[in-house]
Each structure stands twice: as C-alpha cells, then as structure tokens.
Amino acid sequence: MSLRRFVYLVMGGPGTYDLRRIDMSRFFFTNEHGQRHDHLPHPPPSQLEEDDLPEPATTFVSPTGGHMDFMLLAGGGGESNMVVATDETCRATLHDPEAGSNFALPKLSSPKLMAAAVTVDGGLYVLQTVDRFARISPENCFDCLVRRGSGLFRRLQLETPTPPGDDPAQDDEWFCRPLPPPPFVDGGGGRWSRRERLVDSYAVVGGGDRGAGQGPHIWVSTPDQGTHSFDVARRAWSKAGDWSLPLRGHAQFVPEHGLWFGHSGNNDDYDDRDFCKHDLGHVCAADLTATPPTLHAVWTDPTPPEGRMEASYLVHLGRSRFCLARTLETCSPEDGYQDIMVVSGIEVQRCDDDGGKLRMVKHRSQRYDLDCEGEGFAECQEHSAYRLFPIVHDMAAK
C-alpha cells in the first residue's frame, strides 16, 4: 500500500469539532527506502520533543450542538482517503482533503456516534457499537455507504431490496443501504442499555492478501459471545467461533508481514502480563488466519511517556510504519494537571540475523498540549473527542 504521510487528529465536542493534520514524515529518521533524512535531527528515542498542535484544517458543527463521530473512508486505486462525519440527526458529511471541501451524504438509517467502521471494496461499513443515547433501534445498527455506479453499488441494487422511499436511480452520487444486524444484537425491537458496549474488536479478514481462499469478511468480537463474521459478498452473518480476537478495537492488516496489528485484548496466554490488561500503549501483532487467532508478538515501549494513560491510538501508515498516539494526564508542581498527547513514529522490521523475528523500532516522539475548551479531560475522552485518521492525497508534498 502507499505510504501515508499525514494523519488527521479530531478534537472538540460536543457541538464543534476541529480536524488537524499531523505530518508523520517528520517522525521517522529514514524514508520508506531506509535512507536517512539528513535534514532532520536524530534525537534518541527516549527524548520527548515538544511542539504546538497544527492549526485546524477544517471544522465541523453539529446542527443540534450535540455529539458527532468521525470515520475514515479509505481510498483505493489511486483515490484519496476521505473523512466521514456523522451526528445525532443521522446526517453524514464527507470531507475531501484533496479538494478541501465538504459534501453532504445520504442520511444513515440511525445515528452512528460510537461506531466501528471499515472500508471494503470501496464501501464504508458502519456498525454502531453501543446505544449511548438510547435512541437506536437494533434493526438499524448496520449501514453501508457506497458510491453510485461502483461495482459494489450495482450488486447492492440488484441483490438487496430497496428501502421504502429510496430510489436507486436518483442522481445523488452516494447511496446508503441498511444491512442485516449482527446476531448478537437484539432484533426484536428492544433497546440496548445506555452503557453496554457490544463490540470489543473488529477486523477485515479475507479478500486480496488478507487470508487465502475466501472473499472479504468483517469479523466482530463481542463480550461473552465470541466472534461473528459478516460475509461482504453474501451480506449475511455467521458465527466464526466462541473465541475472541486477541486485539482490542480495530485490528489493522499489514501485508508485509501477513499479520494484524493493534493493541492487546484479553488473551489467556498473556493474562499474567499487566501491560496487556492495563497499559494501552503497547503494540501487538496477531495471526487471524489461525484457529483460534493467536498473538504473534507483543512490544513494550522501553521509554514510555510519564503520566496517567487515558487512551491510545494506532494508525497504520503503510509499509510497516505506524503512528502511535497516546493521551495522558500529567501533574507537576509548576503546571498542575495537564492533558497531553504524545505522538510517536514506530516501525516494524524483520531481523534476518535472528530467525526472521520481528522487532519494533521507535523513531521520534513529540508532545502536544491539549485544550478541551473548558471540559474536563475524562469528559472529553468519554465523548470520543480524539480520533486519528490517515490521509494520502499530498503524501508526495515536500
């Protein structure tokens, strides 16, 4: 895959959210070919540099002053990645970073404010993970946003009944298709509890180089219910197994190593390691082609940032490189309590002189002070105020 130069940092809420762009090329001592950047200083990995957050690239405003969520529509075939924003009214907006503009998308079938989202075959599959505001019918928890005229759109139009009031022949560029809810959701018209999170982890398996012998499937692990699989081609759910994925949140496939990367989940083989249950900043690799899926490796940060860890985000940039961002609360006599984000560039390398084992190389790290605009840090975290997305449109820019 192409090497992504930038990530988007989403901050704010409720009501107003800013998107900022962070240039990740500055966080690596070498380029994608392993050649050192002579114009960049080479501090030791333990050194934490300080920098100011970049200015917002764009701002989203909720029409109700309420909550919003953001997800990545990954580009393919040379197309740019885009960001999709949703709000409590089911409205969806597409931000095109290359054009620097926003476009209205069709309304979703229900609000998707704490959603698991993946791009498969050019379509954005969005699954609500919790009914935080007790307004979502379980039957409408799963949608697909797809561009009209694409191969996926034609399959949906021919093989899926058209919802009442929706005309597939209309001229709108995008189309929203509700999909069958997963088996672990109450389909009888009940309501999810306000705090119940239905999804622990998810990944795309199969299709292309993501496992052999099957088309793409979306795997979703839930508390105490194992893992279910959504067949993208058949648009049908099935039980994959009583096991859970060994990674937490979105497990991202890295084709160079044939493994999925993310943060550790609850895995019996690693229950004695406190960092797997408590430290959010460690990176893990898993083999999801095994039955059940197994952890392949776990890497700890030898020089972790100081502070109380609140959240951690891992974004695959391509070619075995990642952005690792951690939000922390710090306290000092001079500054009191502060909310910070530490962004690191990390790289997975294969050691030819050690039996082909993988190692994690930490490059540069920078600290950013965060401003929650008057809200407490815990409240900002609960509102999903921080989200990271990669973009590729100007990866060749100097």
Overview of the structural elements:
The protein is mainly beta and 398 residues long. The chain is 5% helix and 43% strand. The protein has three helices and 25 strands. It has helices at residues 151-159, 274-278, 377-382; strands spanning 6-12, 16-23, 48-50, 56-61, 68-73, 82-87, 92-96, 101-105, 115-120, 123-128, 142-147, 174-178, 201-205, 217-222, 226-231, 236-241, 247-254, 259-264, 283-287, 294-299, 308-318, 321-332, 336-350, 358-369, 387-391. It has an eight-stranded mixed beta sheet, with no helix packed on it. A hairpin with a 2-residue loop joins strand 9 and strand 10. It is globular, with a radius of gyration of 21 Å. The two termini are 20 Å apart. Mean pLDDT is 77; it is low at 167-171, 187-195, 267-279, 372-385 and 390-398.
Outline the secondary-structure elements.
Blueprint: E1 6-12, E2 16-23, E3 48-50, E4 56-61, E5 68-73, E6 82-87, E7 92-96, E8 101-105, E9 115-120, E10 123-128, E11 142-147, H1 151-159, E12 174-178, E13 201-205, E14 217-222, E15 226-231, E16 236-241, E17 247-254, E18 259-264, H2 274-278, E19 283-287, E20 294-299, E21 308-318, E22 321-332, E23 336-350, E24 358-369, H3 377-382, E25 387-391
